[in-house]
Amino acid sequence: MSDVVLRIRDLDVTFTTGSGEVPAVRGVDLEVRRGRVVALVGESGSGKSVTSLSVLGLLPSTARVTGSVELADGEAVRDVVGTPEEQLVDLRGRVVSMVFQEPMTALNPTMTLGDQIAEAVLNHERVPRAVARERAVGLLRSVGIPEPERRAGQYPHELSGGQRQRVVIAIALACEPQLIVADEPTTALDVTVQAGILDLLRELVAQRGTALLLVTHNMGVVADLADEVAVMSGGRIVEHGPVEQVLLAPEHEYTRALLDAVPAVPPASDRGSSDRGSSLSRPGSEVSGVSTGSTGGVGSTGGVGATGDGSDTDADPREVVLDLRGVSLDYRVQGRHVRAVERLDLTVRAGEMLGLVGESGSGKSTAGRACLGLLTPAEGEVLLLGTSVARARGKARRRLLADVGVVFQDPGGSLDPRRLVGESIAEPLAIHGRDGRRLTAAEKRARVRELLDAVRLPAGAERRYPHEFSGGQRQRIGLARALALRPRLLVADEPTSALDVSVQAEVLQVLRDLHAELGFGCLFISHDLGVVHELTDRVAVLRAGRLVESGPTAEVFRAPRELYTAELLASVPTPDPAAQRERRAARQALAPVPGAVASGAAPAPGAAL
Predict the structure, then answer these.
(1) Of 47, 98, 401, 421, which residue is 20 to 30 A from 171 by alpha carbon distance?
(2) Which of these, 406, 407, 413, lies nearest to 373 by C-alpha position?
Protein backbone atom coordinates (compact mmCIF):
# COMPACT_ATOMS: atom_id res chain seq x y z
CA MET A 1 0.00 0.00 0.00
CA SER A 2 3.14 2.24 -0.10
CA ASP A 3 2.33 5.26 2.07
CA VAL A 4 -1.40 4.49 2.11
CA VAL A 5 -2.38 3.57 5.66
CA LEU A 6 -6.12 3.10 5.04
CA ARG A 7 -7.86 2.14 1.83
CA ILE A 8 -11.66 1.78 1.75
CA ARG A 9 -13.20 0.30 -1.39
CA ASP A 10 -16.90 0.05 -2.28
CA LEU A 11 -17.97 -0.04 1.37
CA ASP A 12 -21.64 -0.81 2.00
CA VAL A 13 -23.19 -1.00 5.48
CA THR A 14 -26.82 -2.03 6.04
CA PHE A 15 -28.52 -2.34 9.43
CA THR A 16 -31.23 -4.89 10.13
CA THR A 17 -34.03 -3.43 12.25
CA GLY A 18 -37.46 -4.53 13.37
CA SER A 19 -38.99 -2.65 10.43
CA GLY A 20 -36.60 -4.00 7.80
CA GLU A 21 -33.18 -3.20 6.40
CA VAL A 22 -31.79 0.35 6.56
CA PRO A 23 -28.81 1.27 4.33
CA ALA A 24 -26.33 3.53 6.15
CA VAL A 25 -23.26 3.60 3.86
CA ARG A 26 -23.25 3.00 0.11
CA GLY A 27 -20.29 2.61 -2.20
CA VAL A 28 -17.73 4.58 -0.18
CA ASP A 29 -14.17 4.81 -1.55
CA LEU A 30 -11.52 6.59 0.52
CA GLU A 31 -7.76 6.60 1.13
CA VAL A 32 -5.70 8.08 3.98
CA ARG A 33 -1.91 8.43 3.67
CA ARG A 34 0.86 8.84 6.23
CA GLY A 35 1.25 12.34 7.60
CA ARG A 36 -2.07 13.45 6.08
CA VAL A 37 -5.38 14.53 7.57
CA VAL A 38 -8.54 13.50 5.73
CA ALA A 39 -11.77 15.03 7.03
CA LEU A 40 -15.02 13.13 6.66
CA VAL A 41 -17.84 15.65 7.02
CA GLY A 42 -21.61 15.68 6.88
CA GLU A 43 -24.70 15.97 9.03
CA SER A 44 -25.99 13.42 11.51
CA GLY A 45 -27.22 10.42 9.56
CA SER A 46 -24.91 11.05 6.61
CA GLY A 47 -22.93 7.87 7.33
CA LYS A 48 -19.64 9.40 8.47
CA SER A 49 -19.57 7.84 11.95
CA VAL A 50 -20.65 4.44 10.58
CA THR A 51 -17.78 4.64 8.10
CA SER A 52 -15.30 5.49 10.86
CA LEU A 53 -16.51 2.63 13.08
CA SER A 54 -16.11 0.27 10.13
CA VAL A 55 -12.39 1.06 10.10
CA LEU A 56 -12.00 -0.47 13.59
CA GLY A 57 -14.60 -3.20 13.13
CA LEU A 58 -16.76 -1.69 15.88
CA LEU A 59 -20.14 -1.95 14.18
CA PRO A 60 -22.86 -3.93 16.02
CA SER A 61 -23.96 -7.42 15.02
CA THR A 62 -27.02 -5.95 13.28
CA ALA A 63 -24.76 -4.44 10.59
CA ARG A 64 -24.07 -6.24 7.31
CA VAL A 65 -20.82 -5.00 5.78
CA THR A 66 -19.55 -5.58 2.25
CA GLY A 67 -16.59 -4.16 0.34
CA SER A 68 -13.12 -3.82 1.87
CA VAL A 69 -11.44 -1.78 4.62
CA GLU A 70 -7.69 -2.38 4.29
CA LEU A 71 -5.16 -1.33 6.94
CA ALA A 72 -1.39 -1.31 6.48
CA ASP A 73 0.13 -3.51 9.20
CA GLY A 74 3.86 -3.23 8.60
CA GLU A 75 4.50 -4.96 5.28
CA ALA A 76 1.16 -6.76 5.44
CA VAL A 77 -2.30 -5.57 4.48
CA ARG A 78 -5.22 -6.51 6.74
CA ASP A 79 -8.84 -6.31 5.58
CA VAL A 80 -11.04 -5.45 8.56
CA VAL A 81 -14.16 -6.74 6.78
CA GLY A 82 -14.50 -10.42 7.61
CA THR A 83 -11.63 -10.46 10.12
CA PRO A 84 -12.48 -12.40 13.33
CA GLU A 85 -12.92 -10.35 16.51
CA GLU A 86 -9.88 -11.83 18.26
CA GLN A 87 -7.68 -10.57 15.42
CA LEU A 88 -9.36 -7.16 15.38
CA VAL A 89 -8.49 -6.75 19.07
CA ASP A 90 -4.82 -7.03 18.08
CA LEU A 91 -5.23 -4.33 15.39
CA ARG A 92 -7.02 -1.84 17.64
CA GLY A 93 -4.55 0.35 19.45
CA ARG A 94 -1.51 -1.12 17.69
CA VAL A 95 -2.35 -0.32 14.03
CA VAL A 96 -5.38 1.94 14.35
CA SER A 97 -6.81 3.75 17.37
CA MET A 98 -9.76 6.02 18.00
CA VAL A 99 -10.44 9.30 19.76
CA PHE A 100 -14.11 9.55 20.70
CA GLN A 101 -16.29 12.65 20.98
CA GLU A 102 -17.00 12.43 24.72
CA PRO A 103 -13.86 11.69 26.76
CA MET A 104 -15.76 11.18 30.01
CA THR A 105 -17.52 8.13 28.55
CA ALA A 106 -14.32 6.88 26.89
CA LEU A 107 -12.37 6.92 30.17
CA ASN A 108 -12.90 4.52 33.09
CA PRO A 109 -13.97 6.63 36.11
CA THR A 110 -12.64 4.00 38.56
CA MET A 111 -9.08 3.86 37.20
CA THR A 112 -6.30 6.43 37.45
CA LEU A 113 -5.21 8.07 34.25
CA GLY A 114 -1.75 6.50 34.42
CA ASP A 115 -3.21 3.01 34.81
CA GLN A 116 -5.54 3.51 31.84
CA ILE A 117 -2.70 4.57 29.54
CA ALA A 118 -0.46 1.80 30.86
CA GLU A 119 -3.22 -0.73 30.21
CA ALA A 120 -3.26 0.29 26.54
CA VAL A 121 0.49 -0.42 26.39
CA LEU A 122 0.25 -3.76 28.22
CA ASN A 123 -2.53 -4.94 25.90
CA HIS A 124 -0.02 -5.11 23.03
CA GLU A 125 3.49 -5.23 24.52
CA ARG A 126 5.21 -7.58 26.97
CA VAL A 127 6.86 -5.01 29.23
CA PRO A 128 6.95 -4.63 33.03
CA ARG A 129 4.11 -2.61 34.49
CA ALA A 130 6.61 -0.05 35.81
CA VAL A 131 7.85 0.53 32.24
CA ALA A 132 4.29 0.94 30.98
CA ARG A 133 3.57 3.35 33.81
CA GLU A 134 6.69 5.38 32.96
CA ARG A 135 5.60 5.52 29.34
CA ALA A 136 2.16 6.73 30.48
CA VAL A 137 3.77 9.69 32.24
CA GLY A 138 5.76 10.48 29.10
CA LEU A 139 2.62 10.34 26.96
CA LEU A 140 0.80 12.71 29.33
CA ARG A 141 3.75 15.10 29.01
CA SER A 142 3.75 14.80 25.20
CA VAL A 143 0.07 15.78 24.93
CA GLY A 144 0.55 18.87 27.09
CA ILE A 145 -0.80 17.74 30.47
CA PRO A 146 0.91 19.80 33.21
CA GLU A 147 2.59 17.96 36.10
CA PRO A 148 2.23 14.57 34.38
CA GLU A 149 3.69 12.58 37.29
CA ARG A 150 0.99 13.91 39.63
CA ARG A 151 -1.80 13.77 37.03
CA ALA A 152 -1.04 10.11 36.32
CA GLY A 153 -2.36 9.32 39.80
CA GLN A 154 -5.60 11.28 39.34
CA TYR A 155 -9.01 10.20 38.09
CA PRO A 156 -10.90 11.54 35.03
CA HIS A 157 -13.32 13.69 37.07
CA GLU A 158 -10.37 15.68 38.46
CA LEU A 159 -9.50 17.11 35.03
CA SER A 160 -11.16 19.66 32.79
CA GLY A 161 -12.89 18.59 29.57
CA GLY A 162 -9.95 19.64 27.40
CA GLN A 163 -7.48 17.80 29.61
CA ARG A 164 -9.60 14.64 29.51
CA GLN A 165 -9.59 14.80 25.72
CA ARG A 166 -5.77 15.06 25.78
CA VAL A 167 -5.66 11.92 27.94
CA VAL A 168 -7.82 10.09 25.39
CA ILE A 169 -5.36 11.16 22.69
CA ALA A 170 -2.48 9.89 24.86
CA ILE A 171 -4.19 6.49 25.09
CA ALA A 172 -4.67 6.49 21.31
CA LEU A 173 -0.92 7.13 20.89
CA ALA A 174 0.21 4.56 23.46
CA CYS A 175 1.27 1.91 20.93
CA GLU A 176 2.24 4.35 18.16
CA PRO A 177 -0.48 3.38 15.66
CA GLN A 178 -0.17 4.35 12.02
CA LEU A 179 -3.74 5.68 11.88
CA ILE A 180 -5.90 7.62 14.34
CA VAL A 181 -9.64 7.98 13.77
CA ALA A 182 -10.96 11.06 15.59
CA ASP A 183 -14.76 11.20 15.77
CA GLU A 184 -15.93 14.74 16.61
CA PRO A 185 -13.00 15.23 19.03
CA THR A 186 -13.75 18.91 19.81
CA THR A 187 -17.54 19.23 19.53
CA ALA A 188 -18.25 19.83 23.23
CA LEU A 189 -15.15 21.96 23.94
CA ASP A 190 -14.79 25.72 24.31
CA VAL A 191 -13.09 27.56 21.47
CA THR A 192 -9.73 28.06 23.19
CA VAL A 193 -9.64 24.46 24.44
CA GLN A 194 -10.66 23.28 20.97
CA ALA A 195 -7.85 25.33 19.44
CA GLY A 196 -5.36 23.66 21.79
CA ILE A 197 -6.58 20.16 20.85
CA LEU A 198 -6.36 21.01 17.14
CA ASP A 199 -2.80 22.32 17.63
CA LEU A 200 -1.92 19.04 19.36
CA LEU A 201 -3.36 16.88 16.57
CA ARG A 202 -1.58 19.00 13.96
CA GLU A 203 1.76 18.54 15.75
CA LEU A 204 1.25 14.77 16.07
CA VAL A 205 0.62 14.41 12.36
CA ALA A 206 3.62 16.59 11.46
CA GLN A 207 6.11 15.13 13.94
CA ARG A 208 5.13 11.46 14.02
CA GLY A 209 3.84 11.05 10.47
CA THR A 210 0.60 9.65 11.87
CA ALA A 211 -2.35 9.47 9.48
CA LEU A 212 -5.56 11.05 10.78
CA LEU A 213 -9.15 10.41 9.70
CA LEU A 214 -11.10 13.32 11.19
CA VAL A 215 -14.89 12.88 11.47
CA THR A 216 -16.66 16.19 12.06
CA HIS A 217 -19.50 18.51 11.10
CA ASN A 218 -17.48 21.63 11.99
CA MET A 219 -16.24 23.18 8.75
CA GLY A 220 -13.98 25.59 10.65
CA VAL A 221 -12.16 22.64 12.21
CA VAL A 222 -11.81 21.13 8.73
CA ALA A 223 -10.22 24.32 7.42
CA ASP A 224 -7.86 24.43 10.39
CA LEU A 225 -6.62 20.85 10.27
CA ALA A 226 -7.44 18.89 7.12
CA ASP A 227 -5.48 18.33 3.92
CA GLU A 228 -8.38 16.66 2.11
CA VAL A 229 -12.15 16.69 2.59
CA ALA A 230 -14.73 14.02 1.78
CA VAL A 231 -18.33 15.21 2.11
CA MET A 232 -20.97 12.59 2.91
CA SER A 233 -24.72 12.78 2.37
CA GLY A 234 -27.21 9.95 2.43
CA GLY A 235 -24.47 7.41 3.01
CA ARG A 236 -22.47 8.41 -0.08
CA ILE A 237 -19.44 10.63 -0.67
CA VAL A 238 -20.81 13.45 -2.79
CA GLU A 239 -17.64 15.55 -3.01
CA HIS A 240 -13.95 14.87 -2.36
CA GLY A 241 -10.82 16.92 -2.90
CA PRO A 242 -8.15 19.20 -1.39
CA VAL A 243 -9.41 21.32 1.48
CA GLU A 244 -8.99 24.64 -0.37
CA GLN A 245 -10.89 23.36 -3.39
CA VAL A 246 -13.82 21.89 -1.47
CA LEU A 247 -14.26 24.75 1.01
CA LEU A 248 -13.57 27.70 -1.29
CA ALA A 249 -15.07 26.38 -4.55
CA PRO A 250 -17.55 23.63 -3.62
CA GLU A 251 -19.22 21.88 -6.54
CA HIS A 252 -22.03 20.02 -4.80
CA GLU A 253 -25.07 21.92 -3.54
CA TYR A 254 -25.01 19.96 -0.27
CA THR A 255 -21.47 21.16 0.46
CA ARG A 256 -22.51 24.73 -0.33
CA ALA A 257 -25.48 24.40 2.03
CA LEU A 258 -23.22 23.19 4.86
CA LEU A 259 -20.86 26.13 4.36
CA ASP A 260 -23.71 28.65 4.12
CA ALA A 261 -25.03 27.49 7.50
CA VAL A 262 -21.78 28.23 9.38
CA PRO A 263 -22.14 31.28 11.70
CA ALA A 264 -19.26 33.73 11.27
CA VAL A 265 -17.35 36.11 13.52
CA PRO A 266 -15.36 39.13 12.30
CA PRO A 267 -11.86 38.35 11.03
CA ALA A 268 -8.94 38.97 13.36
CA SER A 269 -7.62 41.76 11.15
CA ASP A 270 -10.66 43.88 12.01
CA ARG A 271 -10.02 43.82 15.75
CA GLY A 272 -8.27 46.33 17.93
CA SER A 273 -9.41 49.44 16.01
CA SER A 274 -9.02 52.80 17.72
CA ASP A 275 -12.72 53.46 18.26
CA ARG A 276 -12.78 51.05 21.23
CA GLY A 277 -9.29 51.62 22.57
CA SER A 278 -5.87 51.37 21.00
CA SER A 279 -4.63 48.34 22.94
CA LEU A 280 -5.69 45.03 24.35
CA SER A 281 -5.42 44.94 28.11
CA ARG A 282 -3.79 42.13 29.99
CA PRO A 283 -5.26 40.79 33.22
CA GLY A 284 -4.77 43.34 35.95
CA SER A 285 -4.51 46.33 33.61
CA GLU A 286 -6.99 49.12 32.99
CA VAL A 287 -8.25 50.41 29.67
CA SER A 288 -10.70 53.32 29.47
CA GLY A 289 -11.55 52.93 33.15
CA VAL A 290 -12.29 49.21 32.87
CA SER A 291 -10.59 47.25 35.64
CA THR A 292 -9.95 43.55 35.15
CA GLY A 293 -7.53 42.83 37.95
CA SER A 294 -9.66 42.90 41.08
CA THR A 295 -13.38 42.28 41.15
CA GLY A 296 -13.76 41.89 37.43
CA GLY A 297 -16.63 44.35 37.39
CA VAL A 298 -16.94 46.76 34.49
CA GLY A 299 -17.14 50.41 35.35
CA SER A 300 -19.37 53.09 33.89
CA THR A 301 -16.75 54.85 31.81
CA GLY A 302 -15.70 54.30 28.26
CA GLY A 303 -19.25 53.80 27.00
CA VAL A 304 -20.20 51.10 29.49
CA GLY A 305 -23.43 51.69 31.35
CA ALA A 306 -23.87 51.97 35.11
CA THR A 307 -25.22 48.47 35.36
CA GLY A 308 -21.88 47.13 34.21
CA ASP A 309 -23.11 45.25 31.15
CA GLY A 310 -23.02 47.83 28.43
CA SER A 311 -26.65 48.97 28.69
CA ASP A 312 -27.75 52.55 29.13
CA THR A 313 -30.45 52.49 31.82
CA ASP A 314 -31.64 56.03 31.10
CA ALA A 315 -31.84 55.80 27.31
CA ASP A 316 -33.58 52.41 26.95
CA PRO A 317 -37.26 52.60 27.96
CA ARG A 318 -37.91 48.86 27.70
CA GLU A 319 -38.82 46.94 30.83
CA VAL A 320 -35.96 45.23 32.67
CA VAL A 321 -36.98 41.56 32.91
CA LEU A 322 -33.74 40.33 34.51
CA ASP A 323 -31.41 42.31 36.78
CA LEU A 324 -28.38 40.82 38.52
CA ARG A 325 -26.98 43.26 41.08
CA GLY A 326 -23.55 42.45 42.50
CA VAL A 327 -24.30 38.71 42.47
CA SER A 328 -21.71 36.35 43.96
CA LEU A 329 -22.29 32.61 43.92
CA ASP A 330 -20.48 29.96 45.96
CA TYR A 331 -20.28 26.18 45.98
CA ARG A 332 -19.36 24.07 48.95
CA VAL A 333 -16.69 21.55 47.95
CA GLN A 334 -15.06 19.21 50.50
CA GLY A 335 -15.93 21.49 53.40
CA ARG A 336 -14.76 24.73 51.79
CA HIS A 337 -16.48 27.44 49.79
CA VAL A 338 -15.50 27.89 46.15
CA ARG A 339 -16.53 31.16 44.55
CA ALA A 340 -17.89 30.50 41.05
CA VAL A 341 -19.25 34.00 40.27
CA GLU A 342 -17.92 37.26 41.71
CA ARG A 343 -20.01 40.48 41.98
CA LEU A 344 -21.76 40.08 38.64
CA ASP A 345 -23.95 42.89 37.27
CA LEU A 346 -26.18 42.11 34.27
CA THR A 347 -29.48 43.32 32.88
CA VAL A 348 -31.75 41.91 30.18
CA ARG A 349 -34.60 44.01 28.81
CA ALA A 350 -37.80 42.94 27.12
CA GLY A 351 -37.22 42.20 23.44
CA GLU A 352 -33.43 41.93 23.57
CA MET A 353 -30.96 39.06 23.54
CA LEU A 354 -27.91 39.16 25.77
CA GLY A 355 -25.14 36.66 25.05
CA LEU A 356 -23.18 35.36 28.04
CA VAL A 357 -19.87 33.83 26.91
CA GLY A 358 -16.70 32.40 28.42
CA GLU A 359 -14.78 29.16 28.79
CA SER A 360 -15.82 26.20 30.92
CA GLY A 361 -15.39 27.25 34.53
CA SER A 362 -16.07 30.91 33.75
CA GLY A 363 -19.35 30.77 35.70
CA LYS A 364 -21.79 31.42 32.86
CA SER A 365 -24.00 28.36 33.48
CA THR A 366 -23.84 28.98 37.23
CA ALA A 367 -25.14 32.51 36.64
CA GLY A 368 -27.91 31.04 34.49
CA ARG A 369 -28.99 28.75 37.33
CA ALA A 370 -29.18 31.72 39.68
CA CYS A 371 -31.47 33.48 37.18
CA LEU A 372 -33.81 30.47 37.39
CA GLY A 373 -33.88 30.57 41.18
CA LEU A 374 -31.93 27.31 41.45
CA LEU A 375 -29.03 28.93 43.34
CA THR A 376 -29.17 31.55 46.09
CA PRO A 377 -26.52 34.30 45.86
CA ALA A 378 -23.97 34.60 48.65
CA GLU A 379 -23.98 38.34 47.89
CA GLY A 380 -26.21 40.63 45.85
CA GLU A 381 -29.61 39.76 44.46
CA VAL A 382 -31.37 38.50 41.33
CA LEU A 383 -34.45 40.47 40.29
CA LEU A 384 -37.01 39.00 37.92
CA LEU A 385 -39.49 41.58 36.66
CA GLY A 386 -38.41 43.83 39.54
CA THR A 387 -38.96 41.18 42.24
CA SER A 388 -36.20 39.49 44.23
CA VAL A 389 -36.22 35.75 43.50
CA ALA A 390 -34.69 34.91 46.89
CA ARG A 391 -37.38 36.83 48.80
CA ALA A 392 -40.33 35.41 46.87
CA ARG A 393 -42.04 32.54 48.68
CA GLY A 394 -44.76 29.97 48.00
CA LYS A 395 -47.33 30.88 45.38
CA ALA A 396 -45.71 34.25 44.74
CA ARG A 397 -42.43 32.54 43.83
CA ARG A 398 -44.19 30.03 41.59
CA ARG A 399 -46.07 32.81 39.77
CA LEU A 400 -42.80 34.72 39.33
CA LEU A 401 -40.92 31.75 37.88
CA ALA A 402 -43.82 30.98 35.55
CA ASP A 403 -42.64 34.02 33.59
CA VAL A 404 -39.27 32.34 32.95
CA GLY A 405 -38.69 29.69 30.29
CA VAL A 406 -35.53 27.60 29.99
CA VAL A 407 -33.94 25.69 27.10
CA PHE A 408 -31.22 23.22 28.04
CA GLN A 409 -28.16 22.04 26.13
CA ASP A 410 -29.25 18.40 25.89
CA PRO A 411 -32.89 18.16 24.77
CA GLY A 412 -32.85 14.39 25.13
CA GLY A 413 -31.91 14.68 28.79
CA SER A 414 -34.46 17.40 29.55
CA LEU A 415 -37.46 15.54 28.08
CA ASP A 416 -39.04 12.58 29.90
CA PRO A 417 -38.49 9.57 27.59
CA ARG A 418 -41.59 7.85 29.01
CA ARG A 419 -43.99 10.67 28.20
CA LEU A 420 -45.46 11.67 24.87
CA VAL A 421 -44.16 14.93 23.47
CA GLY A 422 -47.57 16.54 23.84
CA GLU A 423 -47.66 15.65 27.53
CA SER A 424 -44.21 17.16 28.13
CA ILE A 425 -45.15 20.42 26.41
CA ALA A 426 -48.46 20.60 28.29
CA GLU A 427 -46.87 20.03 31.70
CA PRO A 428 -46.22 23.76 32.42
CA LEU A 429 -49.84 24.48 31.48
CA ALA A 430 -51.04 21.83 33.92
CA ILE A 431 -48.85 23.20 36.74
CA HIS A 432 -49.34 26.94 36.25
CA GLY A 433 -52.44 27.24 34.10
CA ARG A 434 -52.67 30.34 31.96
CA ASP A 435 -53.94 33.84 32.60
CA GLY A 436 -54.60 32.86 36.21
CA ARG A 437 -56.86 29.88 35.46
CA ARG A 438 -56.63 26.17 34.77
CA LEU A 439 -57.05 25.12 31.16
CA THR A 440 -59.43 22.44 30.00
CA ALA A 441 -58.06 19.35 28.25
CA ALA A 442 -59.25 20.71 24.89
CA GLU A 443 -57.58 24.06 25.51
CA LYS A 444 -54.30 22.35 26.44
CA ARG A 445 -54.40 20.25 23.27
CA ALA A 446 -55.01 23.36 21.18
CA ARG A 447 -52.14 25.22 22.88
CA VAL A 448 -49.75 22.27 22.34
CA ARG A 449 -50.66 22.13 18.65
CA GLU A 450 -50.16 25.91 18.40
CA LEU A 451 -46.69 25.59 19.96
CA LEU A 452 -45.67 22.70 17.71
CA ASP A 453 -46.75 24.73 14.69
CA ALA A 454 -44.68 27.66 15.96
CA VAL A 455 -41.52 25.52 16.13
CA ARG A 456 -42.32 23.93 12.74
CA LEU A 457 -43.00 20.36 13.76
CA PRO A 458 -45.52 18.27 11.80
CA ALA A 459 -49.04 17.31 12.78
CA GLY A 460 -49.10 14.27 15.04
CA ALA A 461 -45.77 15.08 16.69
CA GLU A 462 -47.55 15.43 20.03
CA ARG A 463 -48.46 11.71 19.91
CA ARG A 464 -44.84 10.51 19.56
CA TYR A 465 -42.00 9.99 22.05
CA PRO A 466 -38.78 12.06 22.19
CA HIS A 467 -36.57 9.21 20.90
CA GLU A 468 -38.55 9.24 17.63
CA PHE A 469 -37.17 12.68 16.74
CA SER A 470 -33.78 13.92 15.61
CA GLY A 471 -31.60 16.08 17.87
CA GLY A 472 -32.69 19.28 16.16
CA GLN A 473 -36.36 18.32 16.41
CA ARG A 474 -35.98 17.50 20.11
CA GLN A 475 -34.44 20.92 20.67
CA ARG A 476 -37.48 22.49 18.99
CA ILE A 477 -39.70 20.47 21.35
CA GLY A 478 -37.70 21.85 24.27
CA LEU A 479 -38.18 25.36 22.90
CA ALA A 480 -41.93 24.80 22.55
CA ARG A 481 -42.12 23.61 26.16
CA ALA A 482 -40.12 26.62 27.36
CA LEU A 483 -42.53 29.00 25.61
CA ALA A 484 -45.74 27.24 26.69
CA LEU A 485 -46.61 29.96 29.24
CA ARG A 486 -45.49 32.85 27.02
CA PRO A 487 -42.61 33.77 29.36
CA ARG A 488 -41.19 37.27 29.53
CA LEU A 489 -37.66 35.90 29.99
CA LEU A 490 -36.04 32.93 28.24
CA VAL A 491 -32.79 31.43 29.56
CA ALA A 492 -31.10 29.33 26.85
CA ASP A 493 -28.05 27.39 28.08
CA GLU A 494 -25.93 26.08 25.16
CA PRO A 495 -29.07 25.16 23.18
CA THR A 496 -27.31 24.38 19.88
CA SER A 497 -23.81 23.19 20.84
CA ALA A 498 -24.44 19.52 19.97
CA LEU A 499 -26.26 20.16 16.67
CA ASP A 500 -25.03 19.98 13.09
CA VAL A 501 -24.52 23.37 11.48
CA SER A 502 -27.56 23.18 9.19
CA VAL A 503 -29.81 21.87 12.00
CA GLN A 504 -28.37 24.55 14.27
CA ALA A 505 -29.24 27.19 11.67
CA GLU A 506 -32.85 25.95 11.55
CA VAL A 507 -33.23 26.00 15.35
CA LEU A 508 -31.71 29.49 15.56
CA GLN A 509 -34.08 30.75 12.87
CA VAL A 510 -37.05 29.36 14.81
CA LEU A 511 -35.76 31.05 17.98
CA ARG A 512 -35.18 34.31 16.12
CA ASP A 513 -38.70 34.27 14.62
CA LEU A 514 -40.37 33.48 17.96
CA HIS A 515 -38.33 36.17 19.69
CA ALA A 516 -39.47 38.74 17.13
CA GLU A 517 -43.09 37.61 17.47
CA LEU A 518 -43.34 37.27 21.27
CA GLY A 519 -40.85 39.94 22.38
CA PHE A 520 -39.39 38.08 25.36
CA GLY A 521 -36.00 38.97 26.80
CA CYS A 522 -33.38 36.26 26.35
CA LEU A 523 -30.22 35.34 28.23
CA PHE A 524 -28.32 33.23 25.66
CA ILE A 525 -25.47 31.28 27.29
CA SER A 526 -22.97 29.82 24.85
CA HIS A 527 -19.33 29.16 24.07
CA ASP A 528 -20.10 29.30 20.32
CA LEU A 529 -19.08 32.85 19.48
CA GLY A 530 -20.30 32.55 15.89
CA VAL A 531 -23.83 31.84 17.10
CA VAL A 532 -23.62 34.65 19.67
CA HIS A 533 -22.42 37.08 17.01
CA GLU A 534 -25.26 36.11 14.69
CA LEU A 535 -28.07 36.08 17.25
CA THR A 536 -27.55 38.53 20.12
CA ASP A 537 -27.81 42.29 20.58
CA ARG A 538 -25.31 42.58 23.44
CA VAL A 539 -22.65 40.31 24.86
CA ALA A 540 -21.06 39.90 28.29
CA VAL A 541 -17.74 38.07 28.65
CA LEU A 542 -17.04 36.09 31.84
CA ARG A 543 -13.65 34.88 32.95
CA ALA A 544 -13.16 32.98 36.20
CA GLY A 545 -16.56 34.18 37.41
CA ARG A 546 -15.90 37.85 36.71
CA LEU A 547 -17.30 40.15 34.07
CA VAL A 548 -14.34 41.42 32.05
CA GLU A 549 -15.99 43.00 29.02
CA SER A 550 -19.44 43.78 27.67
CA GLY A 551 -21.31 45.92 25.18
CA PRO A 552 -23.06 45.70 21.80
CA THR A 553 -22.12 42.34 20.25
CA ALA A 554 -20.95 43.69 16.90
CA GLU A 555 -18.78 46.30 18.61
CA VAL A 556 -17.18 43.94 21.14
CA PHE A 557 -16.46 41.29 18.51
CA ARG A 558 -15.05 43.79 16.03
CA ALA A 559 -12.73 45.54 18.48
CA PRO A 560 -12.41 43.83 21.89
CA ARG A 561 -10.75 45.76 24.71
CA GLU A 562 -9.60 42.72 26.62
CA LEU A 563 -6.82 40.31 25.67
CA TYR A 564 -8.97 37.46 26.97
CA THR A 565 -11.84 38.38 24.63
CA ALA A 566 -9.42 38.71 21.72
CA GLU A 567 -8.02 35.25 22.46
CA LEU A 568 -11.51 33.75 22.52
CA LEU A 569 -12.34 35.35 19.17
CA ALA A 570 -9.04 34.39 17.56
CA SER A 571 -9.66 30.76 18.62
CA VAL A 572 -12.89 30.45 16.59
CA PRO A 573 -12.10 28.49 13.40
CA THR A 574 -13.42 29.78 10.08
CA PRO A 575 -14.18 27.56 7.04
CA ASP A 576 -11.79 29.57 4.85
CA PRO A 577 -8.37 27.83 5.02
CA ALA A 578 -6.36 30.97 4.19
CA ALA A 579 -8.30 33.10 6.69
CA GLN A 580 -7.96 30.32 9.26
CA ARG A 581 -4.17 30.36 8.92
CA GLU A 582 -4.23 34.11 9.59
CA ARG A 583 -6.55 33.62 12.56
CA ARG A 584 -4.32 30.90 13.98
CA ALA A 585 -1.28 33.17 13.63
CA ALA A 586 -3.17 35.96 15.38
CA ARG A 587 -4.10 33.62 18.24
CA GLN A 588 -0.54 32.36 18.64
CA ALA A 589 0.73 35.95 18.65
CA LEU A 590 -1.42 36.75 21.68
CA ALA A 591 0.24 36.11 25.01
CA PRO A 592 -1.29 33.16 26.88
CA VAL A 593 -3.94 34.23 29.32
CA PRO A 594 -2.88 33.11 32.83
CA GLY A 595 -5.42 30.79 34.43
CA ALA A 596 -7.37 30.13 31.24
CA VAL A 597 -8.65 26.61 30.79
CA ALA A 598 -6.73 26.44 27.51
CA SER A 599 -3.45 26.67 29.40
CA GLY A 600 -4.17 23.37 31.11
CA ALA A 601 -5.62 24.69 34.36
CA ALA A 602 -8.74 22.87 35.42
CA PRO A 603 -11.76 25.00 36.33
CA ALA A 604 -12.69 25.41 39.95
CA PRO A 605 -14.73 22.46 41.22
CA GLY A 606 -18.40 23.11 40.70
CA ALA A 607 -17.76 26.24 38.64
CA ALA A 608 -19.05 24.79 35.38
CA LEU A 609 -22.35 22.95 35.22
Answers:
(1) 47
(2) 406
